[in-house]
Design brief:
Elements lengths: L6 E6 L4 E6 L2 H7 L2 H9 L14 E4 L14 E6 L6 E6 L3 H7 L4 E5 L6 E6 L2 E6 L8 H8 L4 E4 L2 H4 L8 E2 L3 E2 L5 H7 L2 E7 L9 H16 L2 H4 L4 H4 L4 H7 L21 H8 L2 E3 L9 E3 L9 H10 L5 H14 L3 H15 L5 H13 L4 H4 L3 H7 L8 E2 L2 E2 L9 H9 L12 H4 L15 H18 L11 H12 L5 H21 L12 H4 L15 H15 L9 H6 L7
Parallel strand pairs: 1-6, 7-12
Antiparallel strand pairs: 1-2, 3-4, 3-6, 4-5, 7-8, 9-10, 9-12, 10-11, 13-14, 15-16
Helix pairs in contact: 1-2, 2-20, 2-22, 7-21, 12-13, 12-14, 13-15, 14-17, 18-20, 20-22, 20-24, 21-22
Amino acid sequence: MHGWTGRILKINLTEKRFETISLPQDIYRRFLGGKGLAGYFLARRAYLEWNAPQMPILLMTGPLAGTGAPASGNTVIASRSPLTGTVSDSSVGGALGAKLKSAGVDGIVVEGMSDAWLGIEIHNQTVRFVSASSLCGQPLSRIADQLETKGAFAAVGNAAENGVRFAAVMIDRHFSTARGGLGGCFAAKRLKYITVEGTGHVSVADNTVCKTAREDIRRLTAASSILMGEHGFFNLGTSALYDLVYSRRMMPTANFRRTVFDSAPLLNANAVRRTYGMQRFGCEGCLVQCLKNSENGMQLPDFDTLAHFTALIENRDLHTAVEAATACSEQGIDTVSAAATLACYAEIKNESLTTDRILGLLEDLGAGRGEGEILAKGSFRAARELGRPECAMTVKRLELPAFDPRGAYGMALAYATSTRGGCYANATALSHEILRKPVATDRFSFSAKARIIKIAEDQNAAVDSLVACKYLFFAASLEEYARVLSGVTGELFTATELSRIGERIVYIERITNMHFGVLGEDDTLPNRFFTEDGSSGPGFAIPRINRREFDDALSRYRRVRELLEDGTPKKEKAERLEIEWNN
């Protein structure tokens, strides 16, 4: 095989043993890698609770990792979410994907449960089980200091140790799985970290084809204003979106009670650059380098983090927002869920959060003590325990990111239909509704959005299976990446086939969610968006979403996706997609 190694490392923590398994080549052709292979393995564990010993944690890379394909070295980490109960996966940068391939495997399946905190250290085909108790309670920056000499690594912080439902997994110091609480899955198994080092190389079938396709991708990327322009990700990071979202009057403010934050112009990406300076860094081999450090090396917040730790919690101090982001990073907490849970709590308590209060609650949250004990459960559970369930701005129990759905109806539908909950990563409508590229769509209309979101879900599932960075798809397309994949593997792939593979992956996730008890009735939005207007202003209004129109769009989506009217997957559709149907 070219591109793939053909081997998966399977580790049992209970018995402290490991083995290498081989998958049929047909499985690689149908699921590619990354998100696809993770979904393939999760479908076989759809009867298990998230913390069951045999519920696997999956770390899967793709056929393009280690080949020089642009921005294609990501790793997908997946399991069942402790926060939502849904399928949860996160495509994350860093060197882990390339190191897995150089170690001779396409991914890792971790099962079982250790009786004490443990580290797994992988070097080529050798696996060591190492006591990790000395790392417990330490900030993640100090853990990174001790692990980075051992190769690429994935590690969890004290938030995971203390049972925070939205604990993250840190990859190579600067990257994080963030959404869904996958850090909690590590903690349930007493798995503190994994390190990977290897000396092998990835076999490529046709370097000439790969080189031509790579150059096409680089040219398209260089021509993209949002990626490489003066006000794009290359220069400002993803916080370049801050002003755009503010100007569109769709910045979630005061726990989504308003959609405009008056202090936003003083807290944008340029304000961050003036205050802290900006140094570029990012994934190896990526032109965009969308992550940003300050002049003294401190990691600066991305768009969702900056927006939520300012507008959503009504914080007007930039330093507080940056300190809050750093506090989450050190403890291993998803910044989006953390800020959204604070916003929900502030609304319930009718409280304006001061700097000391914000940082104090985050510290208590990570430690699972005092008020932080209830906040660690996430806003959905916290709001219900406090008797105000309507204050939790979640879909499928996952807190919403920094785009108010009243300002972009495609985004609203994407939130509702996402298999992992309130997130735009599965089918972002950002390019056409907010960036107005390549063709602007009416952001206050559901017209054609059902098909657009279905197509975007299929594409993004394929991208997360290759595993490539979705940001590059603001410029490139599946057509260019199909050519790269063909050159790497020596097998012909087309953009149409990659979309079909993506459709298969989305459908198998919906089947798995069905077995997890996540039903069609969960494909909806918080009631606030149907009953309360956004913050209208000069030139246009931000009305509440019409529920009938939303329901009609959801019904159209289900027809396009070939689901039953109640959102349940169809057995005959699964069979046409060559998915094994388990009753």
